[in-house]
Amino acid sequence: MLRPGIRRLRGLRLLGFPLRGFPGRPRSVCSRQGEENPPLSAESRWKDRAETVIIGGGCVGVSLAYHLAKAGMKDVVLLEKSELTAGSTWHAAGLTTYFHPGINLKKIHYYSIKLYEKLEEETGQILAGLYNPGDGHIDPYSLTMALAAGARKYGALLKYPAPVTSLKPRSDGTWDVETPHGSMRANRIVNAAGFWAREVGKMIGLEHPLIPVQHQYIITSTIPEVKALKRELPVLRDLEGSFYLRQERDGLLFGPYESQEKMKVQDSWVTSGVPPGFGKELFESDLDRIMEHVEAAMDLVPVLKKADIIRIVNGPITYSPDILPMVGPHQGVRNYWVAVGFGYGIIHAGGVGKYLSDWILHGEPPFDLIELDPNRYGKWTTTEYTEAKARESYGFNNIVGYPKEERFAGRPTQRVSGLYKTLESKCSMGFHAGWEQPHWFYKPGQDAGYRPSFHRTNWFEPVGSEYQQVMQRVGVIDLSPFGKFNIKGKDSIRLLDHVFANVIPKVGFTNISHMLTPKGRVYAELTVSHQSPGEFLLVTGSGSELHDLRWIEEEAIKGGCDVEIKNITDELGVLGVTGPYSRKVLQQLTSEDLSDNVFKFLQTKSLKVSNIPVTAIRISYTGELGWELYHRQEDSAALYDAIMNAGQEEGIDNFGTYAMNALRLEKAFRAWGLEMNCDTNPLEAGLESFVKLNKPADFIGKQALKQIKAKGLKRRLVCLTLATDDVDPEGNESIWYDGKVVGNTTSGSYSYHIQKSLAFAYVPVELSKVGQQVEVELLGKNYPAVVIQEPLVLTEPTRSRLQKKGGKDKI
């Protein structure tokens, strides 16, 4: 245990510093002399009604209040239990950086930095911030106070101390918010309560998957070499040593991210709650826990060896399982929004405040941030899982990320399909919204390990074999992670006709339909099956299950629709059986006629396969002949065994999602979240055939889409082929033309058909013609690419239709 006094420890000298917190110090522990402002006193007035109540006075909550009020919203109220910045904001290191691996999270970072640059001029606060090209840092306390001053300037009420003691939802969607000062009626509430967010969630029966972790950083006294510098040092991040380092006054500040085995989770707060009154306190420092990183920092920056440590800060920060915050409306609870789980709240605060403000005011997100959707988690996200993943995420903070990366802590969850035990020893599993799903299968003698790489690795040849399996014989894939909803009731058709841009399929048929935002962007893609009059099965991707369900539920309420909406994702398993022999195999197991004229493409029927009840849809994301079989989860193993036994003569075998991705790209099938999302409209994404602008219903986004069509497009999605050397596009790679970046890929794969790389990409309309040559940047090298006529490979229904019309010459 470190004790006050002077002590030299492996080259660093420890000057006296308190073991716990700094009582009465209402600012960032790293703010600079002469830059501290007294806390602005809270207002004494009270409101009985509010448009938006924000719970939590850290930098994120105050940023949201500022942006809502500045945008013109009246009656914005922020409630803070103690004082502004209490929790994690006041002791944050204050790093601000443009960089993030996510394309749209870069927008959040960029907006934050640009906002922080101009706040002083707007609000009159001294920010204590530094702008460096590409990087910098800022005093979190002064930042929060500047945002608070701006929020008040535009009419927001910031009330503290005002702890929320109860949240009561009302039948009209409003909330009664109880505090010691009285009750307040709110049209919506936003949980921005930091490490108290779990307690706020529990008030309404939600268990937010958040956990506080201890993060330490070290501040040195004056270092002569640093003091002598004419300009401030840039922020340094050392991935190998796993630490960041920046100048702090005339000394240095550096903070490590220790391994998951050494890092400390404050799990008692999860089981017993945050201690009452905890606000601007710290944990006892533990230098031994981070010593290997301290030594790495001294090796890289030798002046540290002579430096004196004047302070070690060990404070709580809140982690979600994947280290990303949870931002947006929450499924299952009306008008309840969250902005929680910020491991990097300072750089995210400005951008997230603007992002949420725009969403609240305009009814849709300004751009796609599905990776921050709070609905990416569900009932499967247990406390044990959250802790295991938070440890892993913290420990992996500075590792290199690879394409197709898998992280294994906390797996498997309780959410496994009925085939998990059957398949786990035969394949490499991938993680999809809590599910384990086969990515690729290996045979005896093949390298079965997880081998992440930027190049083609041990999965490449096995996936090629699976591709040929589907194209030439018959393959089986576990599709149980699909999100699945049952919708029925007298207003079901009216509801779906309003939320989908496509027509409603006839009874017994299926179609691909898209939900659009009011501005005409693609919010979701689902398959819609009309099972019986007024009853539908809706299917979506695993990652957008609750994301899509929330939208549908909200529109049902807005429209006063008499419908029953049930999430049956965990109840139903799904097997895909596809390939030229799929009909022959399945026909052995059912009395239902599966011939092409009787069971048509996109038709759906209830039948029995090996005496097991299934809903069969003739559809396959591979583009080949096939069926998806929806069945009770407990029947999965028996159904799988029956199909595999029946297909022995046809050489049946398994295939995984890697092969399916290669197959769908060759057929030019788009994927939601890649080729289309809230950043794209369906016209530029090439989805015109699924959008019926002439249908009678005034579906969401219809009018906006008409305007987009009339104005013309600026970019289009194209299909590219490129010859590379042992590397394939994955998505988000730059497209170059004439020495400039003109677009980006959205997804890609190796085409086992033409033995070249294949990718979707957005390019300017003038560069979208077939034959156009561009370049794709992969691993720092530009490869020639050409726009091709899509699809590269015709789908089975198209091939079959052409064959009937004109023989093989037309195919």
UniProtKB/TrEMBL annotation:
Residues 52-124, 126-359 form the FAD dependent oxidoreductase domain. The keyword Mitochondrion applies. Catalyzes the demethylation of N,N-dimethylglycine to sarcosine. Also has activity with sarcosine in vitro. It is found in: Mitochondrion. Residues 362-415 form the FAD dependent oxidoreductase central domain. One of its GO terms (cellular component) is mitochondrion. InterPro entries: FAD-dep_OxRdtase (IPR006076), FAD/NAD-bd_sf (IPR036188), FAO_M (IPR032503), GcvT/YgfZ/DmdA (IPR028896), GcvT/YgfZ_C (IPR029043), GcvT_C (IPR013977), GCVT_N (IPR006222), TrmE/GcvT-like (IPR027266). It catalyses: (6S)-5,6,7,8-tetrahydrofolyl-(gamma-L-Glu)(n) + N,N-dimethylglycine + oxidized [electron-transfer flavoprotein] + H(+) = (6R)-5,10-methylenetetrahydrofolyl-(gamma-L-Glu)(n) + sarcosine + reduced [electron-transfer flavoprotein]. Its cofactor is FAD. This is Dimethylglycine dehydrogenase, mitochondrial. Its main location: mitochondrion. Pathway: Amine and polyamine degradation; betaine degradation; sarcosine from betaine: step 2/2. Pfam families: DAO, FAO_M, GCV_T, GCV_T_C. Keywords: Acetylation, FAD, Flavoprotein, Mitochondrion, Oxidoreductase, Transit peptide. Signal peptide: none annotated. Transmembrane segments: none annotated. Belongs to the GcvT family. GO terms for biological process: choline metabolic process.
